[in-house]
Amino acid sequence: MKIYTKTGDKGTTSLIFGERVSKNDVRVDAYGTCDEANSMIGFGVSLLPKEDWAAEAKVIMQKVQTVLFHVGAELATPSGKEVAWKLKEEDIRFLEETIDEWQAGLKPLKQFILPGGSPSASAFHTARTITRRAERIAVGIEGVNPLVMSYLNRLSDFLFIAARYVNEKMQVNEPVLHKDHS
Fold it and tell me: PANTHER family in the record, alphabetically (predicted)?
């Protein structure tokens, strides 16, 4: 099978179930932004060290990436249609449980932190901001599964904690926001 089909050469693409829409359609923007976040998560994972804690984190991140792929599929589905795989409350609970577990080992925040630290944590911070953009776009989609909105919201929280967790495990100081910006 060839990777190129030439069907999008005139600025349209197919949603799930074959409906053709403009490539600037809100659904395409939303699932494309989820794909960006997913790619950045993968980049962050590729930067993790070869240590036991990182191997466990990679397994968790792969599960998150898989669910995020399916979130994109839900966003690519026209109103009134349903994909076979649907997001479930347990997918959101998994994020919450992991957030609670990872956050328990972190120093409490006493000031704002800036995105950064280790390369992997920086990638997770970037994925967090991309996820927030996906959430802002998805709000404009009529009939979207409400769990999609909850998942994207929780995913950005998860990625914030993931970045902090990675910095802590790698013993990299988090950049802090200083009151004096001169």
Answer: CORRINOID ADENOSYLTRANSFERASE, CORRINOID ADENOSYLTRANSFERASE MMAB
Say which residues have a Cβ less than 8 Å from residue 39's Cβ, sequence separation at least 6.
none
Query: Quick one: tokens of 82?
Result: 């349903």
Nearest to 67 by CA among 10, 144, 121, 147: 147
pLDDT higher than threshold 80 for residue 12: no
- What is the distance between the alpha carbons of residues 107 and 135, in angstroms, rounded to a whole number? 28
Q: Is 166 buried (19+), middle (13-18) or exposed (0-12) by CB count in 10 A? A: buried
Nearest alpha carbon to residue 62 among 84, 37, 38: 38
Higher pLDDT, 62 or 12: 62
Measured in degrees and rounded to the nearest 5, phi and psi for residue 176 equal -110, 155
Lowest-confidence segment of 15-19, 50-54, 61-65 by average pLDDT: 15-19
149 has which bridge partners?
none
Fold of 22-94+116-169: Hypothetical Protein Ta1238; Chain: A; (1.20.1200)
Contacts of residue 14, Cβ cutoff 8 Å, sequence gap at least 6: 7, 20, 21
The residues spanned by each domain of the chain are 22-94+116-169
**pTM metric for this prediction:** 0.92
